[in-house]
Amino acid sequence: MFTKSDGYPSKPAAIELAWRRIIEKYSLPKLNFHALRHSYASFMVSRNVNFKIIQEQLGHSDG
């Protein structure tokens, strides 16, 4: 969860907008913010991290 400076949760649209700005600023591939979960999971698999740990980090309860 992302929070604002006052501690309240950020709105998903605000996070997506900030992500799009980062993509443009650094000329990154056009991925939506949610796709970072998949990129993270793939990276962790490439580092031979135990699948159960990856599952827990991503918040998946089954599998």
Rg of Cα set? 14 Å
Roughly what is the average pLDDT, rounded to an integer?
89
Catalogue the unreliable spans: none
Gross morphology: flat
Helix content: 55-70%
Q: Quote the beta fraction.
A: under 5%
Care to count the β-strands? Answer: 0
What's the structural blueprint in terms of helices and strands?
Blueprint: H1 12-26, H2 35-46, H3 51-58
Explain what you see.
It is built from three helices and no strands. With 63 residues, the protein is an all-alpha fold. The chain is flat. The model has no long low-confidence stretch (mean pLDDT 89).
Quick overview:
The chain is an all-alpha fold and about 60 residues long. It contains 3 helices and no strands. The chain is flat and about 35 Å long.
Identify the notable features of this structure and list them briefly.
63 residues; mainly alpha; 3 helices
